[in-house]
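Onboarding guide, step 5: your first structure request.
Type a short instruction followed by the sequence, for example:

Predict the 3D structure of this protein.
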Amino acid sequence: MIDHTYLEQLKSQLSNLETRMSQPEVSSDQKKMTECMREYSHKKKMAACANRYLTLLDAKVESETILADADSDDELREMAQMELDEIGEKLPQAERDMMVALIPPEPIDGRNVIMEIRAGTGGDEAGIFCGDLFRMYTRYFDSKGWKHSVMDVSPSESGGYKEISFSVEGEDVYKVLKHEGGTHRVQRVPATETQGRAHTSAATVAVLAEAEDVDVEMRTEDLRIDTYRSSGAGGQHVNTTDSAIRITHIPSGLVVQCQDERSQHKNKAAALKVMRAKLFDGQRRKKAEAEASERKSMVGSGDRSEKIRTYNFPQNRLTDHRIGLTLYKLDRVMEGDLEETFGALHEHDIEQRIKEQTGE
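The system replies with structure tokens like these:
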């Protein structure tokens, strides 16, 4: 039960956090400072929501008291009733805001990500769609002011990519993109189709939160690192030295390669970052599978085999199968207009988490 004592406790905790963040051992440590700032931001939001909610409750009790008092004059009773009606309109939203604020933030929501897009079923058209998805995402990143950089790419002969991996850096990147993992299906008439028939093809997307050194143990003796000559689209992209890197994590069998940079050192650093993210993702998946309640709150598992979205070009329709969202503006979506889609996914996730908290 949220009461004024709870609000005072939150204010005390905020004061303690402010003191802690001013101490040299925290202010000089970026990791500790980031953690404190994240906790401070969360508790400040909780305090603001609790204050608004409790203020409305106090005003409600005051108005009800006036209405219940037989000695109250008509003008005062009329004012009390008007205020009570107004509070009745505001209270449900304030209560929901409080429930949302009580949801603990996902510790990795603020992290940068590594995304991988791979052509699936559908032959050449799947590779073209893979390129379309990459363009869609990067246009969205640009609109958000996020930085993105290609880490590895395997071009498709007919255009697009067999697969492409890239990093994304910005504010709350993982929080926004974490629901994109899975199979994306496209329905459209390929340029090579002479009969005008729509074909179905697919691409798979993986979204990996960047891992920190403390998240996973990656021993040098568990890694096999090979170098090879980069293959590209020709011209300036053909590398004449063995700068491409392939890393194999022997215990798990995971293989990562990076060839986009011309420097072997940069490719190795990028490949190690991807490997660390993959191992971290594997750990998180095992934990999620072991915790049914956590798994229930997820919009999707992020498994690449899960069909999450269909892009129907003839009908200009986008459908997200997990939340039943249908938008008839696919042309705008493919230009990076993803705010409505991402917003709906976030709201659905919030609703599921609220239900968990209330036991519904």
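Each response can be followed by summary notes, for example: The longest helix spans residues 30-68.
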